[in-house]
């Protein structure tokens, strides 16, 4: 990138530098869902067309982008800002879990979908949140199994075992 | 492989050649489940320790090997020998679907788990079998979603959409 920039005119490099400074100055976190946003409340939280009673809990703002690309999910989000990881000294109080519980109460949430990748930290965080919320609302987790286009023969054993365990009745 | 063999002693190459001839002569299909077998009935079909009332339907004998590696599945198998594919002129009658229906009746099968990869042919075959069997027994399909170790951010949109659609309540 540096070598590419050295070949470009100075004005262009100055414009890029200014854009970076502006982005850093203007982009912050949505005060409701902690997604990246230039405004105090992000576009998704403000959209009246979205399902107001479903929350999707993700670890990071990047996961919101990935889920939005599917165009399948119509509810709102809540970004935790990381995962519980005692090895790295990250406990539940460093994440946006308190505000999540508050939102579930206040917004009358009917379903919390936990969309966190499968890993030790991910599973710990999922179980922690599920324990906190399951007396208040329905708590679900995204499915794990064979990816699309995936071949049974090339799937790893843990994925296959999860796919069998998570089998669903065909209706 | 050819270059490697040229370096080995003649006796070893002759032994390998004989082993290949023997394998071709002796390995056939199990008369019950159509898995590869040296005997008329394969080891899995004969094993009394396996769950006699659960059948896992797979496209190919290689899928049996993949599923056995998980050590999670304890039932028996049924190998279709391919997938329904009108483009390649393969209809249901070319596959071992008739014997499958017969087995479900005769063996008093309580659950048929369809473990077929997601693709147009795979989905067609799954729906065809489900329609045939669902009045006779419980028919399930393995889960599709995020693979283990998979990151939300790098998952393709269809996999993510399936993972949301297939979400399960956390108990």
Automatic annotation (TrEMBL), chains A, B:
InterPro entries (UniProt xref)? DNA_Rcmb_RecR, Rcmb_RecR, Rcmb_RecR_Znf, TOPRIM_dom, TOPRIM_RecR
Q: Which GO terms describe its molecular function?
A: DNA binding; hydrolase activity; zinc ion binding
SUPFAM superfamilies for this protein: Recombination protein RecR
A Pfam family of this chain:
Toprim_4
Zinc finger (C4-type) boundaries: 30-45
* Highest taxon above the source species: Bacteria
Q: Fetch the SMART domains from UniProt.
A: TOPRIM
* Keywords for this protein: DNA damage, DNA recombination, DNA repair, Hydrolase, Metal-binding, Zinc, Zinc-finger
GO BP: DNA recombination; DNA repair
Q: Which residues form the Toprim domain?
A: 53-147
**What CDD domains does its record include?**
TOPRIM_recR
Per the similarity annotation, which family is this?
Answer: Belongs to the RecR family.
Biological role stated in the UniProt entry? May play a role in DNA repair. It seems to be involved in an RecBC-independent recombinational process of DNA repair. It may act with RecF and RecO.
Can you say what this protein is called?
Recombination protein RecR
* Species assigned in the record: Halomicronema hongdechloris C2206
Q: What is the lineage of its organism?
A: Bacteria, Bacillati, Cyanobacteriota, Cyanophyceae, Nodosilineales
What gene is behind this protein? recR
